[in-house]
Amino acid sequence: MSPQAKLLAGVELGGTKCVCILGSGPDDVRALERLPTGEREETLRQIEAVLDRWRHQHGPARALGIASFGPVDLRADSSTYGFITSTTKAGWRGTDVAQRLGRRLGIPVGFDTDVNGAALAEARWGAAVGLDDFAYVTVGTGIGVGTIVRGRPIFGMNHTELGHIRVARRPGDTFAGICSFHGDCIEGLASGPAIEARAGAPASKLPPDHPAWEFVAHGLAQLVHTMVLTTAPQRIFLGGGVMSAQAHLFERIRQELKRSLNGYVEAPQLEQGLPQFIVPPGLGTMAGPLGALALALDAANPVAAHPTPVATAATR
Amino acid sequence: MSPQAKLLAGVELGGTKCVCILGSGPDDVRALERLPTGEREETLRQIEAVLDRWRHQHGPARALGIASFGPVDLRADSSTYGFITSTTKAGWRGTDVAQRLGRRLGIPVGFDTDVNGAALAEARWGAAVGLDDFAYVTVGTGIGVGTIVRGRPIFGMNHTELGHIRVARRPGDTFAGICSFHGDCIEGLASGPAIEARAGAPASKLPPDHPAWEFVAHGLAQLVHTMVLTTAPQRIFLGGGVMSAQAHLFERIRQELKRSLNGYVEAPQLEQGLPQFIVPPGLGTMAGPLGALALALDAANPVAAHPTPVATAATR
C-alpha cells in the first residue's frame, strides 16, 4: 500500500483543547496540531482549516476519526447522529460535529466518545493489547469511562456515561459536588475542577497528604466498585491529568476498593492481582489523538475487529 | 428430530427454592418439580434424584442447564468452575454444582447465574425477543441483574453482580441495610428481606402508601440510573416477587429515574418511551426454570447465538 493510501486523519475534541492528528498509528504521526476548545463555531472552523491544509499538503486521507467529549449521539438512525448533545460544556449543546466534517471532507468518518476512542487505541497500540474486556477511565476536566466488552465499546440506547453515576458518599463528606446536571455524581465529586472546588487549589498542586484525597480516592473507588459489578473488566486503566499528577491515588483506590467489595467477588484480579488490575494506561497523553486515529482506521476498514457506527449501522 | 433428541433438562437453583424442569421450551414442558433450597448436600441429592428419575422415565436429555444463585465461578480455566463461591446464603459457600451434576449425568452442562439464564430465556421466548442489549432485574430474596450486550451476557473477570453496587442514599434514609457483605448496597436496601427489615412486615403485605416504598423506589431508581450509564440497555425488565406484588413501583421508579438523570441522557427511552423502557418481564415465574432450559439449549448447540462457557472456553 502506498504511504498515502494508509493516511488517516483524526480529531480529538476535548473539553479544554482539541488535537488534530495525521498519520496511521503511534509510529507514523505525520502531523499534529493543538487548538484551545473555545466558542464552538470558531473552534470547528479552526479544525476545518487544519484538515484542509493537511489535505493540500499530504493529499486526501482515507478516513477521519473523531473522538469527542460527550454526551454525543451515536444512534445510526438519528437525525442528530454525530452531534454533541446534552453536554455540561457551555455553548456546545446540540453541535453537529461528525456530519459537518464528513460532508466537508467527503471521506468515511468514524465517530465515538473520546474515552471509547482512547480505549480502542489502548487495545490496538497500548496497554490493553490482547484484552477483550477492559475499561479506560480518564480523571481530568471531567470523568469519562470507555468500556470494552468482547473487543468493542458497549452500545445500547446510546453510549455509556459512567462519569455521571451517583455513588455512595464517604461518611462525613458534605461537599455538594459541581456537576451542573447531578451535583454530586462522581464527575461532580472527583474530577479536576471538583477537586479544585473542594480544596481551593488545582488538583495537580495539592500535596499527597491533603485531606481532600481521602474523599477523592473513596469516590473513585466507588466508581471502580460499580465497574467491577456491572461489566467486570479484566483490567481497569486510570488515566487523565489528575491520575498522572497524583500517582499515590492508585494504591489508595486499590485499598478502598478492597474494603468496599469486602471479599464478595472472588477473582485473582481483586486479590494477588490487584496491583495489575488498576493501572495507568499505556499511551499517556497520546491516547486521545490516537483514539481518533483508531476510529478512523475502523471507518476505513469496516470489517475490522472494532467496527464503528459507520460500519454497524445496518445491524442496529 | 425425534422428541427425545430435543429433550433438555434444567435446574433453577434459587435462594429459597429449586425448580427442576424437563422439556424443550415454554410450549413443551414435560415435567417440573419444585424443592425447597435447604442444606446444600441434601438439596443437591434431591435434585439428583429428580434428574435420575426423569432419565429413567424419559430417556437421557441432550444437555443440562443450571441457572444458579450466585456468585458463581464461570471462569472456564478455573478449578472451581461451576461452583457457588462467596454467597450470602449460609452454608453454601464453595459448593460444586455444575461439575458434580455434569459428572453424574454425563451430558453437556450449561451453567450461568439465575438472572443471566432468565435474561436469555426472555430473549429466546419472552419479552426481549429481538433485543440485543437489555437487562433483566429480579427484586426478590435478593436483587440480581442479567445484562445482555450484543446478545450475550457480559463476562469479564467473572459474571456481573449489580445487586451489590453501593448507591447514593435518599436524604433522610438512615436504614443500615442487611447485606452481610456490604450493609447498604442495593440488595441490602431494597430486596424483599431488606424491605421486611425496614418496614416490619413482608414486602408483599405492605400497602402502596407505606412510607418504606419511597426509599425502596429511590434505591431501585438509583440501580436503574447506574444501569443506564454503565451499559445503556435498550430496555430494562424488572421482575421478581417484590415487583410483581407491588406494581405501583414501576411508575415510581420511572419518575425517580427521570429526576435523577435530570435530562443528561438524551434518548427516546427516557422521554416519551419511558413507559416502555422500564417494564415487567414476559415469562413471569417461568423465567427462572426456562432460563435453565435456555442454558441447556446453548450447551447442546455450541454454535448458538448465546454460547455458554462450555462453548466459549477456547476463546477466553
Descriptive terms for the model:
globular, disordered C terminus, about 325 residues, alpha/beta, 11 helices, five-stranded mixed β-sheet, homodimer
Question: How would you summarize the topology of this molecule?
Answer:
Two copies of one chain form a homodimer.
Chain A: E1 8-13, E2 17-25, E3 28-36, H1 40-58, E4 63-68, E5 83-84, E6 95-96, H2 98-105, E7 109-113, H3 114-125, E8 134-139, E9 143-149, E10 152-153, H4 186-190, H5 192-199, H6 212-230, E11 235-239, H7 241-245, H8 248-261, H9 274-277, E12 278-279, H10 287-300, H11 309-312
Parallel strand pairs in A: 1-4, 4-7, 8-11, 11-12
Antiparallel strand pairs in A: 1-2, 2-3, 5-6, 8-9, 9-10
Helix pairs in contact in A: 3-10, 6-8
Describe the protein's architecture and organization.
The structure is a homodimer. Chain A is globular and about 55 Å long. Chain A has about 325 residues and is α/β, with parallel strands linked by helices. In chain A, strands 3-2-1-4-7 form a five-stranded mixed beta sheet, sandwiched between helices. In chain A, helix 3 packs across helix 10 and helix 6 (about 210-230) packs across helix 8 (about 250-260). The model of chain A is unreliable at about 305-315 (pLDDT under 50). Chain A has helices at about 40-60, 100-105, 115-125, 185-190, 190-200, 210-230, 240-245, 250-260, 275, 285-300, 310; strands at about 10-15, 15-25, 30-35, 65-70, 85, 95, 110-115, 135-140, 145-150, 150-155, 235-240, 280. In chain A, strand 9 (about 145-150) and strand 10 form a beta hairpin. Chains A and B meet through helix 6 of A and helix 6 of B.
